[in-house]
Amino acid sequence: MKKFYRVLFLLILFVGFQFSSKAAEKVEYLKTDWSFKGPFGKFDRAALQRGYQVYQEVCSSCHSMKYLSYRNLVEKGGPEFSLEQAKAIAASFEVKDGPNADGEMFMRPARLSDKFVMPYENEKAAQAANGGAYPPDMTVLVKARGGGVDYIYSLLQGYEDPPVGVSLDDGVYYNKYMYGNKIKMSNQLSDGLVEYSDGTNASVEQMAKDVSTFLMWTAEPHLETRHRMGFKAIVYLIILTVLVYFSMKRIWSRVKTEV
Amino acid sequence: MSEHEYVPKSKAGKWFNDRLPLLTLANHLTDYPTPKNLNYWWTFGGILTFCLITQIVTGLVLAMHYIAHADMAFGSVEHIMRDVNYGWLIRYIHANGASMFFLAVYIHIFRSLFYGSYKSPREIIWIIGIIIYLLMMAAAFLGYVLPWGQMSFWGATVITNLFSAIPLIGEGIVTWLWGGYSVDNPTLTRFFTLHYLIPFLILGLVVLHIWALHIPGNNNPIGIDIKKPSKDTVPFHPYIVIKDGFALLMFMIVFAFFVFYTPNILGHADNYIEANPLVTPAHIVPEWYLLPFYAILRSVPDKLLGVIAMLSAILILAALPWLDTSKIRSAVFRPLYKQFYWILVADVLILGYVGAMPAEGLYLLIARIATAYYFLHFLVVLPILGFKERTTPVPLSITEPILGGSPNLATVKNKDSFKG
Residue A242 is part of which domain span? Predict the structure, then answer.
């Protein structure tokens, strides 16, 4: 048993190393209470709907969302817009379709089955319109950044004047949470920028939180199912383990050895 | 054991068994006499079999939905995560399953090192095991490339570039591996093919590994040869089956925790950025289970020598049965070896840690010392220890010391030492 604890200790040490090596490169991000954290975490429906609004009115003019479809807005575990709402949202965008019977491409209103319409035709067009910087696709952005959702939340509120001695080129801004502190996206949020239909006060902090929640969902659309299923699976495994433990004890009671 | 005399009870069974002795095999597997003092470190063989099967089954399903094309691979993984029914679950099991597989294999290997399971007459089991481990690393590396994220792409570039260290023909080999002049679509398609192939090679080797094991039978915590069957053994079924099952369930709880609650913690965030040959990530790091070897690679200033050091670090294990000159198997009776064993464990963990850090300053120095010690352990410490070490008396059988008939009274009092 003594050795078992020794190995356990070493394992914990190793895992600790792993986490600390990740923590070492991390700045202190702004903290907020996310409803989706923890084993029972769920998304805040209203926050997701508000977050979609912020994405739509602010981010989507530059950032694409290419792996999301309009139908996802209706699905369980997401913003859960009503079917009519989602259809109306989709219909407000135009997509290229075709070729038709005459061999012509044509524009039509988007349907639920369509992917989110991209703001630019391609990456080069996006770069050309943004001073050479490519606004990254936002679908899995939260998972693509070391700090995750906290990082996005902080970054949106992290704009400040550069410290003395730091000079910035044209079109480059100072953000205390950005890697290297220099970011090509200007500060996008200001108090009252959007008008929330549910009457929530659209402070910068509120909008940052809502849109970060929305981006967490776009990155992990099945998070709620995962949490629910995980709880059931682990409870099931624990009960089965206990049962097997007692049958093992019983079987091994026939021989003079401890297990 | 009665496998030579085994006769199926039914007539049909006998008819079939005379033509293909599957029933004899089944009888051998259930009756297989196993030392009764095996501790929980011995349950990882079963756990590893579970890991392999899990990877093959989930991998099969993923392959039905994945598209091995440089322009579509990343998108097809997102398609699996979003639109395929429970695709997220299957992919997270597969991705975390690789880490669980390595966690289990490291415990399995270090158990063998502690109890001297690699020694005569089990050298072939050990060497097959090392080949399996090498194939596992290849499979894991190839698999990590398939999602075609930034780490996939740049990891593939770094590792394949290692071959360019070979004098004269190195550059040619790299071009041949890539199927072009950089990591690109041909590289991805061949990596996918090989990633699909290797698990089945591993499966075949696992059969050989177990076959070779069933010739001498299991080693055990006190490392002595035992009579089989005898009062020192229990039949594999139900004793070992239920014990392995219990350990497997505990393992699955840890596994489930990662899959359901922190599915991305063992991966790197950059791999959720689609591969871009024009942008190099700030730090290119392999998955955690390859870090010790990555540290050895980087601790040598010369590229070719670094590659040689890294390969030797693995291949040296194959020579272990002959490098370890001690006749005593179990570390329980080798007080000095036991100390060096734990130093080696710490050394490998330190290598893993510095492997994740940038190769500069203090980290590089630590990596160099740890690398030197790693080789010192196998090439100097182990051969000398076999001659110099004063081992403690070994009991004659498993049952004896427990019942008090051992010449070694210390082991009778200290029953703890039998459980490792």
Answer: 222-259
Chain A residues with CB-CB distance to B332 below 8 A: none
pLDDT score of B323: 97
Q: Is B397 on the interface with A (CB under 8 A)?
A: no
Question: What's the total number of domains in chain A?
Answer: 2
Same domain? A138 vs A197: yes
Q: Residue A196: is its pLDDT beyond 70?
A: yes
Structure tokens of B344? 């080696």
CB contact under 8 A, A72 and B270: no
pLDDT score, position B398: 85
Q: Which of B82, B246, B346 sits opposite A67 (nearest CB)?
A: B82
The minimum CA-CA distance between B308 and chain A, rounded to whole Å, is 26
- Cβ contacts (< 8 Å) between A144 and chain B: which residues? 269-270, 272-273
- Chain B nearest-CA residue for A41: B261
Instruction: Judge contact between A135 and A120, C-beta under 8 A.
Output: no
Cα maximum dimension of chain B: 75
Task: Point out the residue among A6, A13, A244 whose CB comes nearest to the CB of B242.
Answer: A244
For chain A, how long is the longest CA-to-CA vector? 86
Q: What is the CATH number of the domain that holds A137?
A: 1.10.760.10
Residue B401: per-residue pLDDT: 57
Nearest to B107 by CA among B43, B64, B171, B150: B43
Residue B234 touches partner A, C-beta closer than 8 Å: yes
Whether the CB-CB separation of A78 and A43 falls below 8 Å is answered with: yes
**Residue A27 belongs to a domain:** no
**Residue A143 forms part of a structural domain:** yes
How far apart, in whole angstroms, are the C-alpha atoms of residue B116 and residue B331?
A: 7
Asked if A136 is an interface residue toward chain B (Cβ–Cβ < 8 A), one would say yes
- What span, in angstroms and rounded, lies between the C-alpha atoms of B43 and B63? 30
Q: In degrees, to the nearest 5, what angle opens at C-alpha A137 toward C-alphas A80 and B77?
A: 75
Give pLDDT, residue A68: 97
B268-286 pLDDT, tens per residue? 999 999 999 999 998 899 9
Q: Which residue of B has its CA nearest to A239?
A: B249
Q: Complex ipTM, two decimals?
A: 0.90
Residues B342, A6: C-beta atoms closer than 8 Å: yes
Check CB contact of A39 with chain B, cutoff 8 Å.
yes
Q: Percentage of chain A with pLDDT > 70?
A: 89
What residues contact residue B197 under an 8 Å CB cut-off, 6+ apart?
A: none
Does a structural domain hold residue A16?
A: no
Picking from A7, A67, A241, the nearest residue to B250 by CB comes out as A241
Whether residue A80 lies inside any domain: the answer is no
Instruction: Check residue A256 and give its pLDDT.
Output: 75
Q: What is the mean pLDDT of chain A?
A: 91
pLDDT bracket for residue A226 (50, 70, 90)? very high
| Residue in A143, A227, A234 nearest the CB of B253 | A234
Query: Positive or negative, the Cα torsion across B172, B174, B177, B179?
Result: negative
The CA-to-CA distance between both ends of chain B, in Å, stands at: 28
Residues B62-87: pLDDT tens digits? 999 999 999 999 999 999 999 999 99
Cα gap B202→B98, rounded to integer Å: 14
